[in-house]
Amino acid sequence: MESYCLFCKSGQEGLVIDYLARRGYAAFSPLAVRSKPDAGGVRKTKVRLLPGYVFFDADTEPEWDLIRRCSGVLKTLRYEDGTGALHGGDLAFVEWLKRYEGLVDVSQVVKVGTKIAFVGGPLVGMEAKVVKVNKGRKLVQIALGGGDALFRNIWCSIEYIESNADLDPIRRGTERAAKE
């Protein structure tokens, strides 16, 4: 089975997913949980992790002519060599998203000096580099790939938790996993 990606009109991801499902393709557009302040405090909402992107799997070469007929599809994503099946870091990223059923929840972090360590949530053990931390919005920018990668970075939500003796084994395990 191969994984592919479509670039769609933003806001029409659901239409494209339904269109693909009617043609027998398993498709999804990843979501991320974000904390949003409101009158009652802070509430968690789901937003598109990558607005305009839909991923799908196919056992055989997709029916590109039929797929391009969907009004929400702008283009099929392809690498410079013309191939459309995801590979390398892009494929690893999509497989990671599938492990979480396309929903990237909030990850828990602790401060370690001037850095942070992931102790809970989907970012624990992920092979990626933290590029930026936005403490005010409680977001981290994660670098996914370079070179010919289709997806270079994403923003994920974090929540700071207090470091204590109970977390030390978890943190040590996280730090080991990040070094491997």
Description:
The strands form three sheets. The chain has a five-stranded mixed beta sheet with strand order 9-8-12-11-10. It has a four-stranded antiparallel beta sheet with strand order 2-5-1-6. The protein has a three-stranded mixed beta sheet with strand order 4-3-7, with no helix packed on it. Helices cover about 20% and strands about 40% of the residues. It is an alpha+beta fold and about 180 residues long. It has four helices and twelve strands; from the N terminus they run E-H-E-E-E-E-H-E-H-E-E-E-E-E-E-H. It folds into two domains: about 1-105, Alpha-Beta Plaits (2-Layer Sandwich); about 105-180, no CATH class.
Top keywords for this entry?
alpha+beta; single chain; 4 helices; 5-stranded mixed sheet; Alpha-Beta Plaits; 2 domains; disordered C terminus; 180 residues
Number of domains: 2
CATH architecture of the largest domain: 2-Layer Sandwich
| Count of individual helical segments | 4
Largest sheet: 5 strands, mixed
Proportion of strand residues: 35-45%
**Count of beta strands:** 12
Topology diagram in text:
Layout: E1 2-8, H1 13-22, E2 26-28, E3 31-38, E4 41-48, E5 53-58, H2 64-68, E6 73-76, H3 88-99, E7 103-104, E8 107-112, E9 115-120, E10 129-134, E11 139-143, E12 153-160, H4 168-179
Parallel strand pairs: 3-7, 8-12
Antiparallel strand pairs: 1-5, 1-6, 2-5, 3-4, 8-9, 10-11, 11-12
Short description:
This protein has 180 residues and is α+β, with helices and mostly antiparallel strands. It contains four helices and twelve strands.
